[in-house]
């Protein structure tokens, strides 16, 4: 892939590394450039890196009307050897293609996605945060650009990558546990729908439920399946709980749950997690009745969420539509969740050995 760098703006390029004490937040900062590439006449064409700027879009662009729009979220870290490493980026590229398939959008070869992201990261090297634990959040996205009001798959698309030097997703971070609302009023996805895709519309559809959660004092929603029988996932994370017997349980992936790369990584680190925190990661269907029962009888001792942005979040409380309240253990961040978060962060940041090819230098 021959990337056009001619539009790159030399005067915008940083000449100094990002300041150590800069206030990062999550997803707030932008770097100087974005990557863009178009899909026209059945081909990906004109890969280019240009200054970060507003995009030109026809008012009838189909992404705006019918929602053909998907995205990914990945991270790159500055390691002690002063190199930048992406973490499991190939998995994000594969998942973008799975989302594309669900939304009838074109495939974009993983190799092309990797080249695009690495090229942009290379140009924006000096934007990588140097603060411990911070990262470069990578946001690839693809959207439909045909100017058409017919409901059909668009024939033209744009693929873009933007970067955001970021700190923790939840301001509370691992300092305080979250409270989740378990509701029967709203659902994130139904079988046969788009729940397994990282589609923009899934997030738009979650906002009403999120507002409802805030109104009852909860931080996020833990969604149930459409029959209100089984736990699914949180708005921007997979869910997990830890049992007294040392199981780390993640709800089984179905077509209504986003296949979290963090969850998949945790599931494949079974031996390591046994050694580090005495946990055996497993997946199964979890009924809401057994879940609440097990919290009450003390069989569930910790809970939380997994996701790229959040890494590990701890959940201490659940609240139901009728106001019933359940506290997991003491309600504070559990010791095993802390160990898990530390181990996974160490692995991403190069302080623990990661499995082969999980970390790739830019
Ligand atoms: N579930 C949803 C709905 C998400 O938005 C995310 C975030 O990406 C996740 C789960 C976690 O997935 P991953 O670990 O791949 O970031
Ligand atoms: C991520 O964890 O990378 C996400 O994309 C979640 C996001 C909706 C903030």
């Amino acid at each position: 892939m021959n990337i056009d760098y001619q539009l790159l703006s030399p005067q915008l390029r940083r000449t100094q590394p990002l300041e150590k004490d800069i206030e990062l937040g999550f997803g707030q900062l932008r770097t100087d450039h974005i990557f863009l590439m178009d899909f026209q006449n059945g081909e990906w064409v004109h890969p280019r890196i240009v200054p970060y700027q507003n995009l030109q879009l026809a008012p009838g662009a189909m992404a705006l009307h019918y929602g053909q729009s998907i995205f990914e979220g990945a991270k790159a870290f500055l390691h002690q050897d002063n190199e930048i490493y992406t973490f499991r980026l190939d998995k994000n590229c594969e998942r973008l293609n799975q989302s594309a398939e669900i939304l009838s959008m074109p495939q974009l070869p993983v190799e092309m996605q990797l080249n695009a992201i690495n090229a942009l990261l290379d140009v924006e090297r000096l934007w990588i945060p140097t603060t411990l634990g911070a990262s470069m959040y990578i946001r690839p996205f693809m959207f439909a650009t045909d100017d058409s009001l017919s409901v059909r798959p668009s024939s033209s698309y744009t693929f873009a990558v933007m970067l955001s030097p970021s700190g923790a997703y939840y301001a509370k971070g691992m300092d305080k546990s979250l409270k989740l609302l378990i509701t029967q009023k709203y659902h994130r996805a139904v079988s046969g729908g788009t729940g397994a895709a990282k589609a923009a519309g899934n997030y738009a559809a979650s906002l009403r439920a999120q507002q409802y959660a805030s109104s009852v004092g909860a931080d996020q929603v833990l969604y149930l399946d459409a029959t209100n029988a089984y736990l699914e996932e949180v708005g921007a994370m997979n869910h997990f709980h830890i049992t007294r017997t040392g199981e780390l349980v993640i709800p089984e992936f179905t077509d209504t749950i986003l296949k979290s790369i963090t969850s998949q990584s945790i599931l494949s680190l079974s031996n390591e997690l046994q050694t580090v925190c005495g946990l055996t990661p497993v997946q199964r269907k979890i009924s809401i009745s057994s879940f609440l029962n097990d919290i009450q009888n003390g069989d569930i001792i910790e809970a939380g969420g997994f996701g790229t942005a959040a890494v590990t979040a701890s959940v201490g409380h659940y609240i139901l539509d009728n106001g019933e309240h359940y506290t997991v253990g003491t309600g504070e961040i559990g010791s095993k969740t802390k160990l898990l978060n530390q181990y996974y962060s160490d692995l991403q940041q190069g302080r623990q050995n990661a499995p082969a090819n999980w970390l790739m230098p830019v």
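The pocket of pyridoxal-5'-phosphate (ligand 1) is lined by residues 73, 233, 236-238, 258, 260-262, 306-308 (CB under 6 Å). The radius of gyration is 21 Å.
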